[in-house]
Design goal:
By secondary structure, the chain is mainly alpha-helical. The protein has four helices and four strands; from the N terminus they run αβααβαββ.
Length: 110
C-alpha cells in the first residue's frame, strides 16, 4: 500500500498480510489499517482495502467507516486525492499539516 506522508513526501508502509475471509475479518482489518494511519498520513479507500486483504473493496471500506466510531476516518481519501467529506475532513487534515489545494490532498513537495 502506498500512503501519502506529507512529512516524507513519499510512500509509507507495505501491504499487510490479509486476515481471514469473512466480513467480520474484513471489518476488523479495515479498522486496524485506518487506526494505524498517523496524523498527517492519508490513504485511499482502495489502498485501505488492499492492505486489509481485499483489493477492489473500496466501497466496503466506506461502509466500515460509516459504521465505526473512534477511527480517524478523515485520513481516508478518494484515489484521486479528493475529499469525500468536504469541509470537516479538510479542516481535520489541515490541522494535521496536510496541504489541501482545490479540494484535493497535495503530496508534500509539490
Amino acid at each position: 500500500m502506498t500512503r501519502l506522508d506529507p512529512e516524507e513526501g513519499g510512500a509509507v508502509g507495505d501491504a499487510a498480510e490479509p486476515d481471514g475471509h469473512g466480513p467480520e475479518d474484513f471489518t476488523a482489518s479495515v479498522r486496524r489499517v485506518v487506526a494505524s494511519l498517523r496524523p498527517g498520513e492519508c490513504a485511499s479507500y482502495g489502498e485501505v482495502a488492499e492492505e486489509a486483504g481485499r483489493p477492489g473493496a473500496a466501497r466496503g471500506v466506506g461502509r466500515v467507516l460509516r459504521e465505526s466510531e473512534g477511527l480517524p476516518w478523515w485520513r481516508v481519501i478518494r484515489a484521486d486525492g479528493t475529499l469525500a467529506k468536504g469541509d470537516d475532513q479538510a479542516r481535520r487534515l489541515v490541522a494535521e499539516g496536510v496541504a489541501i489545494v482545490n479540494g484535493r490532498v497535495r503530496p508534500a513537495g509539490r
